[in-house]
Every structure is written in structure tokens, then in C-alpha cells.
User: Fold DNA cytosine methyltransferase from Anaerotignum neopropionicum.
Amino acid sequence: MKVLVACEESQAVTIELRKLGHEAYSCDIEPCSGGHPEWHIQGDALELLKIKWDMIIAHPPCTYLSNAGACRLYPQKGVLNEERYMKGLEAKGFFLKFYNADCDRIAIENPVSSKVFQMPRHSQEIQPYEYDPENEHPYTKKTRLWLKGLPQLIPTSPDAKPIGPYVPAGTGRKDRNKYGAAKRGDDAKNRAKTFPGIAKAMAEQWGGQL
Assistant:
């Protein structure tokens, strides 16, 4: 299949699809960090929606949509940060371009969003530890999937138990060093990368082997 993996600089999903024989391309405004620039299109992913794809997997930016940023969206109880709200609406518009794309198979991945943005109903919620047979990322980090023409992902480590959240909540009251992302000093860009087990499950369950 000819597959677009939009907003993916890590190439995690792209590489797994390539292993199975698919003509997959990552696309992002940033250079790729996955080591395969020959499979990467640096530029505006929306321009690539003008091309017919067999499948689109998108990871649109979530900074202004995510419920994790609710404290910035509402800096005071009941007071909406209008500037951040408008940026969130722009991000929703970008998300909907993929959601409404002319493609028979679409998967969009994003974290839980703030209710104020009234996102379309998601198809599934997944966790990193559920797709971790190699015990590489035994953490919780709830992610939502919006699927069209694709089945829900089946956990590849259904009996696994998480050791804690990947990204710590709060700032000062907890020991941040015991959490997955904080322990390794990961910045926001690295925290947004697709976990290896999830990338492999997406490729194998949605793409299969040619």
C-alpha cells in the first residue's frame, strides 16, 4: 500500500510499514530523526492530502488541544485564555483536515483533548503498556484513536501491568524522577514520539505483510 504517515518526524510507524513492504512516507515540517530521509517528505502534510493514498496515519500536533494543558487554557477558574483557545481551534481545524480526507483508511492519534474543543468522538483509547511485549515502555499515557475503514488495535501484551505514568502530573508535589519521561530527561518533542510497540502494532494490524 501507499501510506502517508503525517506529522511524524521520528519515522517510527513509517519504518515498521517499510519492513512489511509498504510504500510508506513520513511527513513533517521538521527533518526526520529516524535515519531514512529517503522516506521522509519535509513540508506541509496538508499539501500531500491532494494525493490519493491507500492509508493515512496522522499524528497532528496536540499542544493546544490536550487536556494536559487545561491549566493554561483556564489560568483562573472559569476564565478562558482566549489566545490559547483560538490556537486550539486552529489545531482542531488541522486535525479535521485529516479526519475528513479523501481516503478509505484513516487513523488519527492524539491524547485526550479538552472538552471545550468538542472533538469528534474517538474510536478507541490505548495505553503504551498494552503494546509492549518487549517490556520497553511499561507506562500509562492514554492516547485516543479516530479510525475510518480500519479495525481497532488489539493489545499485544494484554496481561501487562503498568509501573506508572510516562509523563508526571503536577510540578512540585511528586518525585518526577520515577516517571518514564522525566527519568530520562525527555523533552516535549521526544515525549510525543510513537512508542515502538504501538508503531509495530499499527503496521502489522492495519497494514499486514505484502
The helical segments are 12-19, 45-48, 70-73, 82-99, 180-183, 188-191, 196-207. Strands lie at 2-6, 23-28, 40-42, 55-58, 106-111, 124-126, 139-140, 143-148, 164-165. Residues 2-207 form a domain with the Rossmann fold fold (CATH 3.40.50). DSSP finds seven helices and nine strands in the chain.
